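Consider the subject:
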Amino acid sequence: MKRFNETHQPITALFWLGLALLSIAAAAAQDTYSTNNVRDLVRRVEDRTDEFRKAVDKFLDRSRLDGSKLEDDLNAVVKRFEKATNTLRRKSDRMAGYQEVREEVNEVVSRGREVNVIIKGGKWDSNIKSRWNRLRAAINELGRAYRTPRI
């Protein structure tokens, strides 16, 4: 007569395999995005970018950098980032599927990294840092839909 463990090993193995597959499916479902989810994320990123750019411009205009080449350079980086988010927003409004704007998302993330270097390396007030942190979180959430590395 077979012992209990010997007769139930295949059933136990199937149970654990099934449990593992369910875990993988649940994890994949959490990272599934619909086109509407992505559109909402894009809108959030673009809206926060507009607010951020205005705050940076105002901050620089009141700083000792006002009128300097450095101010122009900093504004240019932020404006290139804003232009990338505007392009993404326009294209996402017309997309049939969210994968259609993968290239534009990558551009936003890339430009966001440039802004991140500036914010991390500068002496910005808490308003700018707070706005950037919220914006960066939204960019990272959007990037997660496309499996891009975080900023």
Remarks:
- The longest helix spans residues 4-30.
